[in-house]
Structures are given as C-alpha cells and as structure tokens.
Amino acid sequence: MTGTLITVAPTGAESSKADAPALPVTLDELVTTAKECEALGASIIHVHIRDDAARPTLDQGRLRATVAALREGTGLIVQLSSGGSVHDPEADRLAVLDAAPEMASCTMGTVNFGDDVFMNRWEFIVDLHTRMQERGIVPEYEIFDLGQLTTLQRLLSRYGLPAGGHVHVDLVMGVPGGMPGTAAAVVACEQAIRDLPEGTTFSATGIGRSTIPVMLASLSAGGHLRVGMEDTLTYAKGRPVESNMQLVARAVGFAQLAQRPPLTAAQARELLGVPAR
Ligand code: KMH
Ligand code: ZN
C-alpha cells in the first residue's frame, strides 16, 4: 500500500461566501489557500471558481488565469471541475478543457442533487472523456452512486484508457440523491473497482457529517482522501470549519495514523500519470 493522495476541494459551487466567510472565492484567496494546503500535505487541488460577486462561473478568462496562477504559485496538480454548478450548460462545461488544466473531473452519470439534478448524459460523458484523451488531460472520474462505476467500465471498454493510462476515481458520498457516506458503501465501491483496469486507484469524500466515517473507511480500504470546504462546512458538532487548511491538517493526521503519509505532488503525478512539471 502506498502513501495517501490528498486532494483539497476548497470552494465548490454550492456554498455562498455569506454562509461560509472562510470560503476562498477570489484568485488571491484561492492561491493562498492552495499554497498553505500544499505545505500541509495536499497534492491535488480540485477547483471551482467564482465571479466578482462570488457566484460560481465558468468564465474562460478566469479559468485560464486560475490555472496559470496555481501553476506559478504551487506544485499542486491543478484539476478543474468540469461539473461546474447544476445550472451550467454542457457547452460551458466542455469548454473548461480549453483552459488546459493538468486534470479535470468527469462525472459518470446523472444524479439527484438535493432538490436539483446534476445532469451527465452518456453522450456528454463520452465527449468529455474523448476530448481529454485528445488533449492529454488526465481525468478524475467522479462517482456519486455505485452504478456509475459500471458506466465507467463501459466507457473504458468502448473508448479506451484515459490520457496517462492510469484510471483514478473519486467517490463523492453522502450527496442527497446519491450513495450514502458509510463504510459499507466504501467497501461496495472498492469491490466494484476491482473490475476496473488493474491499478485503478480511488479517493473518497463524504459530504457533511459523513466526512470522518468516509475518511477512515477509505484509508482502511486502501483508498485516498479528498477534503475541503466544497464538501464540508462543519468541523465538529456546533463548530463551523475555520479554513480548508484545518480540514487538510485533519486528513494528514488520519493518513499518518494509518501509516500512509501524504504523497508529495511529484509522487502523485507519478501515480496518476500526470506529466512532471
Ligand atoms: N457542483 C456539482 C454540481 C465536479 O466538480 O466535477 C458537481 C461537482 C462535480 O462538484
Ligand atoms: Zn467539484
């Protein structure tokens, strides 16, 4: 078993700055957060950006500036979200790839998302996957429900391995409408991942209060960790999260307890097939 890949997802598209003042929404806030999380042990940053009014946006100029600033200021693997917000049109989500990130997310199916629907049609998934192959962008396949792992198997068998040749999935657990954030669900996914190409790796994140059970289960099952204010705004009962760094520090502590210390960004690149800088 190797060390632990720690992804920080600092912002997301769902929470407002008014509700969570520590949410990084400006480029400066994002870069500062990224540097501090890297120093603590994160190796990937999963990025959603905001506009001047702190609303989620997929503005191309901002995306490009964000990729450039994160590459300049950190050694982290820069992973742009192609999921955006539930309101973003498919064309804008595909255009995220034009900002040339090293990695991008690629969700494996439609899922109820609270009161909304996060749409991911088969043809759209195929488009994202094949465009990433053509451009050498390494995908992280986002899995919100068990059956989406079977969709991934179908995708890979019809359209081939991703850029870099390595398959990495992220289990996003505890979304109202998706799979629960439980140890049993982590184990069920880990069993299904065995049917994917040899060497497939996974990370997991639990939304809200499922964050701790999912972290512990993932580490026990040989998985990696994603943490951050995209997924978790409460540190403990009655205690709002103070910063993304607080969540990364906790994940690093758990990984060390499991005797699987954090991978550096260079080690993460090697594991995932992301070209070295
Ligand atoms: N904001 C969610 C609708 C991703 O980044 O790829 C989708 C999401 C997944 O967060
Ligand atoms: Zn996201």
From TrEMBL:
Cofactor(s) in the UniProt record: Zn(2+)
Superkingdom per UniProt: Bacteria
Keywords carried by this UniProt record: Metal-binding, Transferase, Zinc
Record has Transferase as a keyword: yes
Pfam families found in the cross-reference section: BKACE (PF05853)
Matching PANTHER family: 3-KETO-5-AMINOHEXANOATE CLEAVAGE ENZYME, 3-KETO-5-AMINOHEXANOATE CLEAVAGE ENZYME-RELATED
Protein name: 3-keto-5-aminohexanoate cleavage protein
Organism: Actinoplanes flavus
